[in-house]
Amino acid sequence: MSTAELDAGLTADDVSAVQAFARRYQHKRAACIEALMAVQRRHRWISDQKLREVAALLDMTPDELDGVATFYNLLFRRPVGRHVIMVCDSVSCWLMGHDALLAALQQRLGVQRGQTTADDRFTLLPIVCLGHCDHAPAMLIDDDLHGDVEPEKLDAVLAAYR
Ligand code: FES
């Protein structure tokens, strides 16, 4: 990813999307999460420049909006790959095989938590309970929840994400 891409601001479509969300609420700032998610869907992550421009459109300071963005772990403030794998490390998953699942993922992908594969295909991140505890160990890939993910099932699961 070039420096220009890293620093790029909002597109005209991004601005329209943010403004459309802002019009739904009496106070524009109420749209901040939806607006950031809309920008992220287009660009995978929220750069500093994009965050500053979204904040201006919502009458917020960049620091206020960054506080929201960094609180929600589904909003990414650093570049990520085409697919984001979030592995639950809360208690049920930890008891039911989190360590083996994480080790298998790290081995297959060749990355540690927080890293992106060299082909830009996957980013591997931890996450707290996904609410899928009765199917631990669980993980989220993009918007898809996967439960009972034994290491031997991983290849079949990952094959669906190109
Ligand atoms: S503890 Fe992993 S989904 Fe709840």
Quick take:
This protein is an alpha+beta fold. It has helices at 3-7, 12-22, 32-43, 48-57, 62-71, 91-95, 98-109, 154-159, and strands at residues 83-88, 122-127, 139-141, 144-146. Helix 2 runs antiparallel to helix 3, helix 3 (32-43) packs antiparallel against helix 4 and helix 4 crosses helix 5.
Describe the overall structure.
The chain has eight helices and four strands. It has helices at residues 3-7, 12-22, 32-43, 48-57, 62-71, 91-95, 98-109, 154-159, and strands spanning 83-88, 122-127, 139-141, 144-146. The protein has 162 residues and is an alpha+beta fold. Helix content is 44%, strand content 11%. The model has no long low-confidence stretch (mean pLDDT 94). Residues 88, 90-93, 129-133, 136, 138 line the site of FE2/S2 (inorganic) cluster.
